[in-house]
């Protein structure tokens, strides 16, 4: 058992003592300093040794258990979990670098997916920040110099995602872009250049984000679907040559909502390191978790600089802000920033400055806390109503996080595109799950919950049930 006395002293001036305890133990496990099966100190012993409240140690252990680093059974000591893939060690040596499908969109209607509740956006507060910055921009901020983002915003975002998502990077590695799509396009065009000798193979989660599929194809990718299950993408079921790029949504898989397990995360990172692949980690709405705290980002445990981390304010604040960001491996940064300047994928300076203030003053964190409560109630009401009224013909997901809810037809012969078209004509905005597959699909419907008030969910689900005579929707 590792003695708690052997741990480094905590930095009390930095705050987040729970996070410090969590990261120290996580990193020791990943470096192999705490082997599988090793007993860890009791929370009482650890708290006493470090001089922290026992709840701090308990919460840190719970995070480690939730993410698969530790395991415990009733009446037995807590121990380091065993992994089928060994912990990551060393640094990766990056290898040299090298007609899209229609994107299905839905009109406004009940259960529309892909959109947050913009009515709840803090309009008055944002207007004050935007007005103040618009009146006081410095002369040097108005030139061409900050095409990858002003330092104030980079530092504010990095401080936030380091604390909440476990991202490890320098501010220079973070670039500001207008959207996640812009970031995917930018990185794909750098990584999949036609003059590169290692091909243009890209692995894509199946099912997966249709916009990412389209952008990768436009960049010249040869897309290979890799199946996802309840533990996330399963690279053991992939086929063909090693990819240059792998697109994943590990913390909250789109659209299924699955969380990638720790063994799968480690296997993916080791595979990418060994094959010179780059992982695009799209962390699009993982801030919203209802059953547990958010799982830390894949990038935070990447010891080989093989992960490019993508985040956006479109889901957490509003799409109209047009602000997203990418944390790029340091060795890839010069080529990405040069390409960004050429493509003009930049964000207005006054928007960036106002957002930096908004984050630094705690407004963003407060808005997230509020919306997490709001969306949790809407998700719970939607899941309950859909299961009650539509459960005979629809297998509804758990809805543990995010702004969308996947469901699957119990009758696999149903044409979900035809079903969605007929249902949407009556005031809904559902998406056919088959539109998110590259290979043979599993039919179902995707629901958005962000704009569904809890008190309206039951009536909407009842209406949907009345619209569903299954005999008219089979293929």
Structure description:
This protein has 475 residues and is an alpha/beta fold. It has three domains: 4-80, Arc Repressor Mutant, subunit A (Orthogonal Bundle); 122-361, Aspartate Aminotransferase, domain 2 (3-Layer(aba) Sandwich); 366-472, Aspartate Aminotransferase, domain 1. Helices cover 36% and strands 12% of the residues. The strands form three sheets. Strands 3-10-9-8-7-4-5-6 form an eight-stranded mixed beta sheet, with helices on both faces. Helix 8 (262-275) links the parallel strand 7 (245-248) and strand 8 (278-282). Helix 1 (17-30) packs across helix 3 (54-66) and helix 4 (123-136) crosses helix 10. It starts with 16 loop residues before the first helix and ends in a 9-residue tail after the last helix. The model is unreliable at 89-107 (pLDDT under 50).
């Amino acid at each position: 058992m590792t003695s708690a006395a052997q741990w480094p002293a905590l930095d009390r001036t930095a705050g987040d003592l729970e996070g410090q305890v969590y990261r120290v133990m996580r990193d020791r496990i990943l470096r192999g300093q705490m082997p599988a099966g090793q007993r860890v100190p009791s929370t009482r012993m650890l708290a006493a040794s470090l001089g922290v409240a026992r709840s701090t140690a308990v919460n840190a252990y719970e995070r480690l258990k939730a993410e698969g680093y530790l395991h415990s059974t009733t009446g037995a000591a807590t121990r380091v979990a065993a992994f089928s893939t060994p912990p990551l060690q060393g640094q990766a040596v990056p290898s040299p670098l090298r007609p899209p499908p229609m994107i299905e969109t839905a009109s406004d209607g009940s259960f529309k997916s892909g959109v947050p509740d913009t009515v709840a956006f803090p309009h008055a507060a944002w207007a004050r920040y935007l007005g103040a910055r618009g009146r006081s921009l410095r002369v040097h901020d108005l030139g061409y110099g900050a095409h990858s983002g002003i330092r104030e915003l980079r530092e504010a975002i990095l401080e936030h995602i380091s604390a909440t998502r476990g991202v490890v990077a320098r501010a220079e590695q973070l670039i500001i872009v207008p959207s996640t799509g812009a970031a995917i396009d930018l990185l794909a065009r750098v990584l999949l250049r036609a003059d590169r000798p290692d091909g243009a193979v890209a692995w894509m989660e199946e099912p997966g984000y249709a916009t990412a599929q389209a952008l990768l194809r436009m960049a010249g990718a040869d897309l290979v679907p890799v199946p996802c299950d309840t533990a996330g993408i399963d690279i053991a079921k992939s086929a063909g040559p090693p990819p240059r790029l792998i697109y994943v949504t590990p913390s909250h898989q789109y659209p299924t909502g699955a969380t990638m397990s720790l063994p799968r995360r480690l296997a993916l990172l080791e595979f990418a390191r060994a094959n010179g692949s780059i992982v695009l980690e799209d962390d699009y709405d993982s801030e919203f978790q209802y059953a547990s705290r958010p799982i830390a980002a894949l990038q935070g445990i990447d010891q080989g600089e093989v992960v490019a981390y993508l985040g956006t304010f479109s889901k957490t604040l509003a799409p109209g802000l047009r602000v997203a960001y990418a944390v790029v491996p340091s060795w890839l940064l010069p080529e990405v920033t040069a390409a960004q300047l050429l493509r003009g994928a930049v964000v207005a300076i006054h928007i960036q400055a106002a957002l930096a203030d908004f984050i630094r003053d705690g407004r963003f964190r407060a808005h997230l806390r509020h919306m997490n409560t709001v969306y949790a109630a809407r998700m719970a009401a939607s899941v309950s109503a859909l299961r009650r009224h539509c459960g005979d013909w629809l297998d509804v997901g758990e809805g543990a996080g995010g702004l969308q809810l996947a469901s699957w037809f119990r009758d696999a012969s149903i044409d979900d595109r035809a079903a969605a078209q007929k249902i949407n004509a009556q005031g809904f905005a559902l998406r056919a799950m088959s539109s998110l597959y590259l290979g043979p699909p599993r039919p179902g419907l995707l629901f958005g919950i962000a704009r569904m008030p809890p008190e309206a969910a039951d009536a909407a689900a009842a209406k949907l049930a009345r619209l569903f005579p299954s005999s008219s929707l089979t293929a």
